[in-house]
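ok new one. same drill as before - structure tokens go in, u give me an amino acid for every spot. 713 of them this time. try not to just spam alanines like last time pls lmao
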């Protein structure tokens, strides 16, 4: 007994009980274990000379000092004298920075970008982190610390960096009662009940994490909105949050419930062309800005899944968006109006957003962005790109990605999203000839827009490690990095994230990266290969239910999406079917339209193909389906084997967590594979090829499973 106690005490003293619970995210700043590197960095970093009096500048100084203390294991003092090894941070208002002729470089960095250079100043070797604004200096400081954390050389730095996208925003689907729609990481971090008087340390840590990856906006509330957030007491709470987030460069946005003028304004209508309604929103905007002067604006889900909107009054999306845009314009606010719309009358849900929005191109006010989900349906593991991208040249289109893994393994699957995001960003829409990539569409360069945006539906909650699955943090990280530099590769982002989050040990980095980079394809294979989509359970969306056919709305039923019958499987979107393909440019139509040339991985999105159709792999469609499902499961088995190899390189706590989760992922992958193949087999009437392990349960068993308390619903 005594012995254990002593042992514990020693452990605590040695600091090794400071369990690695994941709270520190990618900002761990642990002492560098590479001795040579440590010596080199120490030789190059001796003091901090930091300028600026703002709250942001204070944060910068503290971050730099804490970061260096942790990484170098020594207190790097602040001074005003520039000697060898000084890290100089500030704006051109600072004499030394002013004297360094950085004008040309700084001219390229705008209001948020930064310059990091190694240079000589009066014969002394120094490192300068300069920007036009204090927030730029903070971003630059985080970048510098990232270089150290990822073991990069810092001798000859010459970095000029600025964000490609203006609004880089998290969308919290958080309700006022603290539940999180599609949240798998606990409750909402916004403790509305205790606000405005109680400031949780989490808010500050959240802001800091976002600043470290360049995220500059946050929508605090669910798109399925509650008008209460727009009432005075709640606006006071929002103000308290805005005050905490502001020094970190984060603007606060809210979701606007379209019927708020009725619900909290006592009006009889919310018709956007009605004078009193317009006036009500103008007054509301004025009130909000009097409380939060730099309020970002509104995100709106209208006429979608039961949310109220302008169509309730026979008006269109432009009428609705413009009314709100006019209300916030005098204060510099923006409206992010979502294009996620569909209703059961349409003959193909795929087509609807385009049908409703494309004709409105050119009709929106200058401060409106249309926020478009990456694919035409709904955040599925793999979708073709939304045909709206490139099709509305007069309107800035904003990307909406889903960080929270509603359709991609929820809280239990290791799923790194950057490959999925990059697949979309790199896609060529051909709307203005070759090279009209989605990166250029949303960055604004294709159509000369000055405002641009990228949003991610947040995966953050009260769990100690923020995102529940230790690897889910990587998706938050990826959103920030891609919003700043969309041309970064998924591999580069994974590399940085692993080095900061887990380890810099070369082999371990390679192994973990390999798992991450294959996780997208693996998940597509064991859930929805060859272009299958939307075949999960109703409601909570957890697990496979390709047989689902009981909901009133056909477009909520899995059978609507796969259309399996004895002849084949897939949704015919060619001219012979719904002709959704016509919404794309000719080049894209050609690529997908011909069943012989349509890439295998999108086949069932566009064609109803025969079970014995010959795939590009040479296999029949049925055999390919089996092959993909089995390959997906095998990939998870290999992730488990690979993960075992890094045991000695990372902390035990997270090693064990991930190991357990991978085992759940394997079970669930097998469940997806078996349930889907057994069900589709009732149509194909073909055997699962010999040599594959045969399902050990019946289709009836899978159909009988129920999960009344699956999270996030
Ligand atoms: C769907 C989610 C639903 C969201 C909706 C949206 O199931 O909870 O409200 O997207 O994006 O995928 O509005």
């Amino acid at each position: 007994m005594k012995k254990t106690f002593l042992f514990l005490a020693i452990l605590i003293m040695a600091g090794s009980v400071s369990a690695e619970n994941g709270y520190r995210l990618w900002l761990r700043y642990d002492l560098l274990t590479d001795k040579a590197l440590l010596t080199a960095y120490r030789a190059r970093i001796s003091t901090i000379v930091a300028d600026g009096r703002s709250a942001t500048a204070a944060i910068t100084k503290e971050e730099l000092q804490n970061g260096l203390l942790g990484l170098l294991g020594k207190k790097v003092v602040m001074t005003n004298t520039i000697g060898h090894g000084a890290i100089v941070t500030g704006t051109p208002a600072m004499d030394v920075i002013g004297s360094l002729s950085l004008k040309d470089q700084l001219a390229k960095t705008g209001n948020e970008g930064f310059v990091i250079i190694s240079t000589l100043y009066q014969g002394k070797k120094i490192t300068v982190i300069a920007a036009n604004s204090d927030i730029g200096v903070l971003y630059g400081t985080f970048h510098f610390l990232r270089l150290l954390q990822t073991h990069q050389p810092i001798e000859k730095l010459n970095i000029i960096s600025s964000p490609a996208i203006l609004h880089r925003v998290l969308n919290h689907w958080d309700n006022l009662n603290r539940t999180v729609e599609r949240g798998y990481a606990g409750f909402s971090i916004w403790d509305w009940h205790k606000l405005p008087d109680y400031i949780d340390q989490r808010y500050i840590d959240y802001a800091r994490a976002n600043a470290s990856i360049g995220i500059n906006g946050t929508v605090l509330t669910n798109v399925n909105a509650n008008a209460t957030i727009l009432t005075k007491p709640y606006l006071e709470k929002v103000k308290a949050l805005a005050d905490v987030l502001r020094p970190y460069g984060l603007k606060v946005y809210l979701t606007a419930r379209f019927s708020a003028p009725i619900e909290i304004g006592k009006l009889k209508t919310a018709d956007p062309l009605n004078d009193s309604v317009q006036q009500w929103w103008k007054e509301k905007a004025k009130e909000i800005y009097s409380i939060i002067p730099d309020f970002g604006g509104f995100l709106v889900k209208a006429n979608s899944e039961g949310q109220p909107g302008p169509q309730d009054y026979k008006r269109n999306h432009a009428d609705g968006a413009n009314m709100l845009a006019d209300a916030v314009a005098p204060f510099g606010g923006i409206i992010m109006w979502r294009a996620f719309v569909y209703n059961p009358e349409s003959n193909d849900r795929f087509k609807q957003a385009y049908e409703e929005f494309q004709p409105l191109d050119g009709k929106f006010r200058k401060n409106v962005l249309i926020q478009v989900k990456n694919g035409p349906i709904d955040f599925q593991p793999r979708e073709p790109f939304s045909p709206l991208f490139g099709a509305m040249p007069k309107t800035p289109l904003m990307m909406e990605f889903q960080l929270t893994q509603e359709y991609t393994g929820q809280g239990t699957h290791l799923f790194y999203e950057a490959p999925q995001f990059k697949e979309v960003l790199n896609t060529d829409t051909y709307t203005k000839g070759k090279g009209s990539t989605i990166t250029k569409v949303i960055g604004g360069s294709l159509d000369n827009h000055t405002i641009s945006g990228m949003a991610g539906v947040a995966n953050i909650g009260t769990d100690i490690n923020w995102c529940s699955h230790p690897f889910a943090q990587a998706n938050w990280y990826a959103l920030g990095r891609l919003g700043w530099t969309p041309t970064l590769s998924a591999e580069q982002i994974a590399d940085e994230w692993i080095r900061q989050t887990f380890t810099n040990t070369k082999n371990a980095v390679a192994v973990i990266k390999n798992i991450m980079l294959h996780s997208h394809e693996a998940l597509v294979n064991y859930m929805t290969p060859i272009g299958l989509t939307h075949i999960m359970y109703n409601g909570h969306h957890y697990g496979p239910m390709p047989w689902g056919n009981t909901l009133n709305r056909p477009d909520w039923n899995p059978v609507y999406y796969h259309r399996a019958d004895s002849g084949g499987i897939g949704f015919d979107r060619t001219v012979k079917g719904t002709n959704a393909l016509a919404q794309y440019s000719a080049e894209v139509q050609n690529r997908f339209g011909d069943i012989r040339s349509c890439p295998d991985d999108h086949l069932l999105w566009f064609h109803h193909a025969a079970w014995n159709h010959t795939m590009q792999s040479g296999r029949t469609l049925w055999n390919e389906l089996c092959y993909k499902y089995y390959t997906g499961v095998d990939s998870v088995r290999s992730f488990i084997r690979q993960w075992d190899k890094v045991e000695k390189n990372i902390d035990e706590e997270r090693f064990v967590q991930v190991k357990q989760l991978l085992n759940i992922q394997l079970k669930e992958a097998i469940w997806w594979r078996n349930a889907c193949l057994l069900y589709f087999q009732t149509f194909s009437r073909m055997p699962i090829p010999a040599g594959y392990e045969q399902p050990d349960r019946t289709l009836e068993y899978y159909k009988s499973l129920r999960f009344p308390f699956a999270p996030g619903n």
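The two ends are 46 Å apart (CA to CA). and btw The pocket of beta-D-glucopyranuronic acid is lined by residues 181-182, 223-224, 301, 305, 340, 378-379, 406 (CB under 6 Å).
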